[in-house]
């Protein structure tokens, strides 16, 4: 199943805020960090760990 990255980040952020109630700045840092990692040289290594 192919899901756009922006949609997956939006869903994870929404669920994280609603279910866990962490500080909003922490969610923003984690989402931005994940987005930047997905577009980095580490992306193939992360992809092989996920699949």
Write a structural description.
The protein has helices at 5-20, 24-38, 43-50. With 51 residues, the protein is mostly helical. The longest helix is centred in the first third of the chain and has 16 residues, at 5-20. It is globular. Helix 1 (5-20) runs antiparallel to helix 2 (24-38). The chain starts with a helix and ends with a helix.
Give start-end ranges of low-pLDDT stretches: none
Q: Choose one word for the global shape.
A: globular
What profile does the largest beta sheet have? none
SSE-based structural type: mainly alpha
Provide the β-strand percentage band: under 5%
Number of helices: 3
End-to-end distance: 12 Å
Overall pLDDT, averaged? 84
**Rg estimate, integer Å:** 12 Å
Order of helices and strands: HHH
Compute the number of strand runs.
0
Helix content: over 70%
Notable characteristics:
single chain, 51 residues, mainly alpha, 3 helices, 76% helix, globular
